[in-house]
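Journal club prep — side note

Before the paper discussion, L.F. wants everyone to see what a predicted structure for a comparable chain looks like in token form. Sequence:
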Amino acid sequence: MSRGGHGPWGARGPSEADRRAYADAVTEPFWLDQPERPPARPPLQSPAEADLAIVGAGLSGLWAAVLAKERQPDREVVVVDAGELAGA
């Protein structure tokens, strides 16, 4: 049975020591905080063709695209999402 609460602290919530430990944390995902990060692409303005279209750029959608390209590198894969990649 769950004791309730959310996150690593459970129902008790974070202490002041916990808060100090994370005071300098950056909220940007580490995979986007990289110098080699590709620039954002403009929104799709016209029809596109692909061998595989993945709707949803969350971690599952992105992972599906990676696996599809690994299995068939010549496959044209398009990932579309209404928001930002991986919720970032």
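L.F.'s comment for the group: The chain has two helices and two strands. Keep this in mind when we get to the figures.
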